[in-house]
């Protein structure tokens, strides 16, 4: 009989190596899946994991990876702070949309003025938009004890409606011949987040790196980060240590909202280019997976976001080149998460074989 | 002598890294109250879990009335006639007594019949209990009666009781002993687990003493002195804490009119509590668990805020200050629950040192943690308080209860408190560690700190406190000098026997028989 036994202290070696083991198992099982579908498994795996980074057209795909990873990192870093403290912001998608709308609106208000001051102002507006959207569930939780999971999630759909209304109404391009959608920021240099569009670099990537560094310092060197971890580990001990739960909720939801808002802002003024009905692309939800895949650790999140971006870019490539159905790619991505979470158990438990009866 | 009811031969059980029971053998006769004596961690609980079918032995055999006995699960043990009252009750607060009893039965009868049977058993054995009351409203002693009655309804041949008196007032202990003696007279054997020697001398016919998982001796408790049994149990001569009596100084902690609503549904309301503690003085607060101890600690530590002027330290009102503001003023506390309240289970000892030490030890600078200083502080605690651990990086949950308790107490004592409030400082701690913790508290008082010790261990309170009071249903009794208090007086301060005026087993038996 196989039984699980709790380890006295979590295994450090395993907590570092399980993500790699999970990726390897996913490759093996995914390979089996692809071969059942009649594709060459080695070629499929190579197309997903190798070609985007080292293949013939890697010069095109590498920037794509960063473009996809940057918003995931920004959002997931913010979410991880709350998740560590047991505060569940599920509505990053909504905060992402609101950040994009607010940042873009400020920029468009100045169109076509060209000034160096406009872009910083837009950044602040984007962050504030996301922050404000995150403060709604925070204030309701603090004041009335509502559940932040439900409120933040429902606000995603409110934000979605606002986005549609904005792209059809207030922010619609006056020279757009009646088509929905705002002016494109690629025509407005002062408001564009691209640093170098040809190289695929935009300011969101810089902010993502800064967020990783700040979050690392906060969690490892600052008492506030310690209080966040303590609240998640043992809420009663946190109260005893003098942590003010109200302030912590406001901080965590506000920060994750602001970071998600920034992600949305850099996306709308860069890769996406305009406020439009189909702007929301699910980054806010995918970031939840990224946060856990990275074990809520800043560096882990950075790697997890890159891995996630790789399966997206590589998955697209495999669909195009090998004719794999998109559902197979989604199953493949699901497998990765499944194996990672399953193996996660091993850091806290060890498997012991027991002979039935005697033990 | 006839065949013993239960005969244990060579039982051994090992867990990774520890031998819980090593070749333990003894017999329990019919009509016998058999004591299983040993310190915390001596292997008593593992042994009875094997008898009750919760744990399977690695080797060794048991015979029950001459037949081989190896219960694969508690159900089988119960079918043979083994019943057990656990130290920690498994009762649902929101359900009635009868409903709780029904939940533990395989084929519960109709609720009305069950209520009648509960009443009959409770009257027969002098355990007054109303089957319709909600368990959440019962005192700890009454809850224990629910557990005992649940067992008695199975007509057990062997009743196992794990540390039954730790939650009882002296008067309630008296009643429990009458019940147990009556059970014995009717042919039920009892396996009585305890580390309280006087109880065992008063109640038990035989005693088996365990130390570090081994059977280190048997004796007839009535013929053996408590000191001899203690030395068998500890394996060493005991060191009694010594105190240097200092003259008490000025009033440091002044609590007046302290009233506090509980934070959860079944908590206790603190009602108009008054007391003062002087510098160099130890105030002992006794009482049965659940009578406001947790709430009092929370009010003093700053986790719960109270009305202005209800708590003053050196004349300054602190009732409205949180835990960290109080720490700055030198008011420190160590809660009862080690894992999850006093310490975070999954964080390392270093991180747990930061948990309360940040303010007074100056471990942060503009909010940035000085980890090297924190590690130093953790190492100092580990060294000064003899915490047995592979290092400061170990998670708190990996330490044994006694070692973690030494860490938690040490962490506060080393921060030079002016006022220290501790709840159950030696709960679940072996005798040697308990003695060193008490010594540390006495030394701290000798150094001029005002100390409040909340505890359910009366011997401990009598040993170290200058004055004594008891919490009962959220009220604090008048404070009396601890020296010269009799057990009877203490029992009355604790509220006498809960839930009954006078219980006479004999009289109620007659009523039960006539009913």
Q: Determine the number of helices of chain A (DSSP H or I, runs of at least 4 residues).
A: 13
The CATH topology of the largest domain in chain B comes to Rossmann fold
The CATH superfamily name of the largest domain in chain B is: P-loop containing nucleotide triphosphate hydrolases
For the biggest sheet of chain A, the summary is: 2 strands, antiparallel
- Proportion in helices of chain A: over 70%
The computed structural class of chain A is mainly alpha
Descriptive account of the structure:
The complex is a heterodimer of chains A (359) and B (515). Chain A is globular and about 75 Å long. In chain A, a hairpin with a 4-residue loop joins strand 2 and strand 3. In chain A, strands 1-4 form a two-stranded antiparallel sheet. A two-stranded antiparallel ribbon of chain A has the order 2-3. Chain A starts with a strand and ends in a 6-residue tail after the last strand. With 359 residues, chain A is mainly α. Chain A has a domain at 74-322. Chain A has helices spanning 12-36, 41-54, 58-84, 92-110, 118-144, 148-168, 203-221, 223-233, 235-240, 245-268, 283-293, 298-322, 326-348, and strands spanning 2-6, 194-196, 201-202, 349-353. In chain A, helix 3 (58-84) crosses helix 11 (283-293) and helix 3 packs across helix 12. Chain B is an alpha/beta fold. Chain B has two domains: 6-239, P-loop containing nucleotide triphosphate hydrolases (Rossmann fold, 3-Layer(aba) Sandwich); 251-493, P-loop containing nucleotide triphosphate hydrolases (Rossmann fold). Chain B is built from 17 helices and 23 strands. Chain B has helices at 44-51, 74-80, 97-103, 111-124, 140-152, 170-185, 197-203, 226-234, 293-301, 323-328, 349-357, 371-384, 401-413, 431-446, 458-464, 487-493, 505-514, and strands at residues 6-15, 18-28, 33-37, 59-64, 67-68, 82-85, 158-162, 189-194, 206-211, 214-219, 251-260, 270-278, 282-286, 311-313, 316-317, 331-334, 364-365, 368-369, 419-423, 450-454, 467-472, 475-476, 480-481. In chain B, strands 13, 16, 19, 20, 21, 22 and 23 form a seven-stranded mixed β-sheet that branches. Chain B has a six-stranded mixed β-sheet with strand order 6-7-8-3-9-10, with helices on both faces. Chain B has a four-stranded antiparallel β-sheet with strand order 2-1-4-5, covered by helices on one side. The longest helix of chain B is centred in the middle third of the chain and has 16 residues, at 170-185. Chain B is globular, with a radius of gyration of 24 Å. Chain B starts with 5 loop residues before the first strand and ends with a helix. The chains are: A mainly alpha (359), B alpha/beta (515). The A-B interface holds A 5, 8-10, 221-224, 226, 229-230, 233-234, 236-242, 244, 357-359 and B 16, 56, 58, 301-303, 322-325, 327, 333, 335, 337, 339-347, 351, 354-356, 358, 364, 367-369, 371, 394-395, 397-398.
């Amino acid at each position: 009989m196989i039984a699980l036994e709790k380890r006295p202290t979590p295994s450090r070696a395993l907590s570092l190596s399980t993500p790699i083991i999970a990726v390897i198992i996913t490759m093996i099982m995914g390979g089996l899946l692809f071969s059942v579908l009649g594709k060459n498994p080695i070629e499929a795996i190579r197309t997903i994991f190798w070609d985007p980074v080292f293949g013939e057209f890697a010069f095109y795909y590498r920037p794509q990876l960063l473009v996809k990873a940057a918003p995931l990192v920004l959002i997931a870093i913010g979410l991880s702070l709350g998740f560590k403290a047991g505060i569940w912001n599920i509505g990053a998608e909504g905060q992402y949309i609101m950040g994009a709308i607010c940042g873009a609106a400020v920029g468009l208000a100045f169109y076509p003025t060209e000034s160096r001051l406009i872009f910083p102002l837009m950044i602040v507006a984007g962050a504030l938009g996301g922050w404000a959207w995150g403060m709604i569930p925070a204030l309701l939780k603090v004041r009335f004890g509502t559940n932040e999971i439900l409120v933040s999630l429902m606000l995603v759909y409110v934000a979605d409606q606002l986005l549609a209304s904005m792209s059809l109404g207030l922010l619609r391009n006056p020279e757009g011949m009646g088509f929905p959608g705002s002016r494109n920021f690629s025509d407005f240099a002062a408001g564009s987040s691209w640093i170098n569009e040809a190289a695929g670099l935009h300011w969101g990537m810089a902010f993502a790196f800064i967020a990783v560094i700040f979050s690392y310092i906060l969690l490892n060197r600052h008492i506030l980060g310690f209080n966040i971890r303590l609240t998640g580990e043992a809420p009663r001990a946190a109260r005893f240590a003098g942590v003010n739960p109200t302030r912590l909720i406001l901080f965590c939801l506000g920060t994750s909202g602001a970071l998600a808002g920034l992600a949305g802002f850099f996306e709308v003024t860069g890769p996406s280019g305009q406020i439009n009905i189909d702007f929301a692309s699910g980054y806010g939800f995918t970031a939840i997976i990224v946060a856990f895949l990275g074990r809520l650790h800043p560096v882990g999140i950075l790697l997890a976001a890159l891995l996630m971006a790789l399966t997206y870019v590589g998955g697209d490539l495999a669909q195009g080149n090998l004719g794999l159905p998109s559902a197979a790619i989604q199953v493949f991505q699901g497998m990765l998460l499944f194996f990672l979470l399953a193996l996660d158990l091993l850091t806290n438990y060890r498997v012991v074989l027991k002979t039935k009866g005697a033990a | 002598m006839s065949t013993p009811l239960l005969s244990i031969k060579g039982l051994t059980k090992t867990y990774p890294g520890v031998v819980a029971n090593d070749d333990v053998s003894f017999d329990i006769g019919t009509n016998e109250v058999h004591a299983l004596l040993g310190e915390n961690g001596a292997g008593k609980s593992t042994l009875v879990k094997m008898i009750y079918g919760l744990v399977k032995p690695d080797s060794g055999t048991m015979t029950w009335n001459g037949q081989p006995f190896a219960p694969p699960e508690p159900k089988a043990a119960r079918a043979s006639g083994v019943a057990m009252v656990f130290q920690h009750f498994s009762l649902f607060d929101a359900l009635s007594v009868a409903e709780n009893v029904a939940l533990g039965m395989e084929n519960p009868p109709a609720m009305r019949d069950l209520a009648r049977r509960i009443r009959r058993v409770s009257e027969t054995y002098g355990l007054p209990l109303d089957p319709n009351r909600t368990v959440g409203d019962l005192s700890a002693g009454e809850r224990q009666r629910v557990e005992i009655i649940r067992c008695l309804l199975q007509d057990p041949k062997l009743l196992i009781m794990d540390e039954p008196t730790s939650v009882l007032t002296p008067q309630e202990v008296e009643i429990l002993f009458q019940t147990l003696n009556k059970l014995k007279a009717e042919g039920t054997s009892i396996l009585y687990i305890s580390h309280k020697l006087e109880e065992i001398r008063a109640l038990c016919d035989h005693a088996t003493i365990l130390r570090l998982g081994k059977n280190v001796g048997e004796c007839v408790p009535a013929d053996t002195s408590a000191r001899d049994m203690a030395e068998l149990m500890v394996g060493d001569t005991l060191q009694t804490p010594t105190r240097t009596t200092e003259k008490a100084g000025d009033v440091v902690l002044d609590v007046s009119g302290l009233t506090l609503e509980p934070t959860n549904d079944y908590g206790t309301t603190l009602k108009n509590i008054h007391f003062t503690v002087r510098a160099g003085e130890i105030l002992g607060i006794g009482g049965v668990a659940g009578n406001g101890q947790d709430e009092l600690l929370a009010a003093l530590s700053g986790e719960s805020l109270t009305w202005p002027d209800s708590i003053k330290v050196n004349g300054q009102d602190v009732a409205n200050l949180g835990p960290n503001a109080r720490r700055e003023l030198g008011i420190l506390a160590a809660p009862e629950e080690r894992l999850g309240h006093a310490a975070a289970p999954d964080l390392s000892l270093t991180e747990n040192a930061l948990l309360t030490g940040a303010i007074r030890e100056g471990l942060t600078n503009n909010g940035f943690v000085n980890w090297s200083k924190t590690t130093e502080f953790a190492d100092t605690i580990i060294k000064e308080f003899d915490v047995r651990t592979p290092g400061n990086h170990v998670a708190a949950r990996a330490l044994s209860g006694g070692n973690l308790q030494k860490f938690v107490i040490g962490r506060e004592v080393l921060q030079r408190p002016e006022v220290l409030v501790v709840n159950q400082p030696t709960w679940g701690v072996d005798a040697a560690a308990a003695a060193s913790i008490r010594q540390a508290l006495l030394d701290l008082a000798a150094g001029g700190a005002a100390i409040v010790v909340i505890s359910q261990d009366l011997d401990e309170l009598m040993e170290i406190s200058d004055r004594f009071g008891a919490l009962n249903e959220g009220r604090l009794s008048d404070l009396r000098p601890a020296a010269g208090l009799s057990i009877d007086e203490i029992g009355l301060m604790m509220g006498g026997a809960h839930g009954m005026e006078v219980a006479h087993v004999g009289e109620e038996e007659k009523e039960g028989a006539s009913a």
